[in-house]
């Protein structure tokens, strides 16, 4: 099941099927997407309960899929990842324990990925003659670089938190990833949303820079008093 709780400025989304290593069923994917599309907190924190982050799609479900069912499962997973990317909330993945297949793909859609020393990552679908279809082929190379992405996807091997940090799959390795979500949530929500929109901008550089100028001007106008106070403290 998926639990959604508000804790101050952080919406905590918990994947809570520890007996199945937090493997996801189609209905779980729908709840995750709804949570991201409806979030009102400035930060969404995604994590898994128990010893794993997420094992990806539940193989009990995958084993019974026909062609149309496979398309539907892929589309539902892609909806979640797109929702993480498009919401104004900053989405932080706290990865403690194994992330496998679709679990890696969920993390790839998050804005900030933070691991504990116990985290590990793998795209093992190739061993079953499959590959991740929740947007992994589109995002893994962009985030990790083509060489590391090809290695992970084609070998199916597992990498630990240190290697994941080296290749850019995670930005930090800490004991408690939730502290990073709280750190981010301490900043003005409008600044967080504007920064995310600009960093996620996929248009050409010139038009991106023009939108960056306007967003910066809006924030300066909105936070004039805070800026003046900070200046006076220097």
Q: What are the salient characteristics of this protein?
A:
2 domains; 2-enoyl-CoA Hydratase, Chain A, domain 1; 234 residues; 6-stranded mixed β-sheet; alpha/beta; 50% helix; 9 strands
If you had to describe this structure to a student in words, what would you say it looks like?
By secondary structure, this protein is α/β, with parallel strands linked by helices. The protein folds into 2 domains: 183 residues, 2-enoyl-CoA Hydratase, Chain A, domain 1 (Alpha-Beta Complex); 33 residues. The protein is 50% helix and 17% strand. The protein is built from 11 helices and 9 strands. The strands form 2 sheets. A 6-stranded mixed sheet has the order 1-2-3-4-6-9, with helices on both faces. Helix 4 crosses helix 5 and helix 5 packs across helix 6.
Strand and helix map with partners:
Elements: E1 2-7, E2 10-15, H1 26-38, E3 43-48, H2 59-62, H3 67-86, E4 90-95, E5 98-100, H4 102-109, E6 112-115, E7 120-122, H5 136-144, H6 146-155, E8 158-160, H7 161-166, E9 172-173, H8 178-185, H9 189-199, H10 205-222, H11 224-233
Parallel strand pairs: 2-3, 3-4, 4-6, 5-7, 6-9
Antiparallel strand pairs: 1-2, 7-8
Helix pairs in contact: 1-3, 3-4, 4-5, 5-6, 9-10
């Amino acid at each position: 099941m998926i639990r959604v709780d508000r804790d101050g400025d952080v919406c905590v989304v918990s994947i809570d099927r520890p007996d199945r290593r937090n493997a996801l069923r189609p209905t779980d994917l729908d709840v995750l997407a709804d949570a991201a599309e409806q979030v009102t907190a400035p930060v969404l924190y995604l994590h898994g309960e128990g010893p794993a982050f997420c094992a990806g799609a539940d193989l009990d479900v995958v084993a019974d899929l026909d062609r149309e069912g496979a398309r539907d499962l892929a589309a539902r997973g892609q909806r979640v990842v797109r929702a993480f990317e498009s919401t104004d909330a900053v989405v932080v993945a706290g990865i403690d324990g194994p992330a496998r297949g679709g679990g890696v793909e969920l993390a790839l859609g998050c804005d900030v990925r933070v691991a504990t020393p116990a985290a590990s990552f793998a795209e093992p679908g190739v061993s079953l003659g499959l590959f991740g279809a929740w947007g992994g082929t589109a995002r893994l190379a962009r985030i990790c670089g083509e060489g590391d992405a090809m290695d992970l996807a084609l070998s199916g091997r597992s990498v630990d938190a240190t290697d994941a940090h080296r290749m850019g799959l995670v930005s930090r390795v800490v004991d408690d990833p939730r502290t990073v979500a709280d750190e981010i949530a301490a900043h003005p929500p409008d600044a967080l949303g504007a920064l995310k929109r600009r960093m996620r901008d996929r248009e050409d550089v010139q038009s991106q820079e023009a939108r960056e100028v306007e967003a910066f001007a809006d924030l300066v106008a909105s936070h004039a008093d805070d800026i003046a106070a900070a200046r006076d403290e220097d």
